[in-house]
Amino acid sequence: MPFRFTPSHRNQGLFPFRPDLTKGRIGILSSFLQTAFDQSSSDLAAWYSLADSAENQQVEFKCSESRGIYDVPATLSGHCEWLDFILDSRESLILNQPSPHYYGKILFIPGMRSAMALPMFSNKAVSDIVILNSRRENHFGHKNSTNLHLLGNICSNLLT
């Protein structure tokens, strides 16, 4: 009898990441966004891609796709403190309790209580950022963050 994924398996982190390789980079990131949104049970997920901004030296990311019932900002500029942190450190950012003093702008919607930003790498440079928000505090604890980091690493490896 073949194994079937049930809702309880999805909650255990066994939901398969099946990127659509026929659509290239867009298919990979779109599949990752959907998997991250489903697996983490987040309330909002957004994928931002590095935009071409040759006229000024400012880094800008444009929203390529989002999941959830909330609207997300169309662009992210390099003036965000949390975005500067990700670009400088090349690390994920997790905010498990809302605080205006510590990267509070990563919570896109009032009422969101925790957030996670995952940088995606292409040719060893940050090319995309996936942002997840949740209405629950401490939502991106050890289990969620570990699973999302693993998925993010797989996705980044497929992009290179």
Total of helices? 4
Question: What is the CA–CA distance across the termini?
Answer: 37 Å
Structural class by SSE content: alpha+beta
| CATH C-level | Alpha Beta
Quick check: average pLDDT? 81
Q: Approximately how much helix is present in the residues?
A: 25-40%
Give the biggest beta sheet.
6 strands, antiparallel
The helix/strand order is HHEEEHEEEH
Strand order of the largest sheet: 3-2-1-6-5-4
* Number of structurally distinct domains: 1
| Count of strand segments | 6
Strand content is 25-35%
* Gross morphology: globular
Please mark out the parts with pLDDT under 50 across 5 or more consecutive residues, or reply none.
1-15
CATH architecture: 2-Layer Sandwich
What's the short version?
The chain has about 160 residues and is α+β, with helices and mostly antiparallel strands. The protein has helices spanning about 5-10, 25-40, 80-90, 140-160; strands spanning about 45-50, 60-70, 75, 95, 115-120, 125-135. The protein has a 6-stranded antiparallel beta sheet, sandwiched between helices.
Features:
160 residues, 4 helices, alpha+beta, disordered N terminus, 6 strands, Beta-Lactamase, 31% helix, six-stranded antiparallel beta sheet
Notes on the protein architecture:
- It is a single chain.
- The chain contains four helices and six strands, in the order H-H-E-E-E-H-E-E-E-H.
- 31% of the residues are buried.
- The protein has one domain: 2-Layer Sandwich (Beta-Lactamase), CATH 3.30.450.40.
- The protein is globular.
- A six-stranded antiparallel beta sheet has the order 3-2-1-6-5-4, sandwiched between helices.
- The chain has 160 residues and is of the alpha+beta class.
- The longest helix has 18 residues.
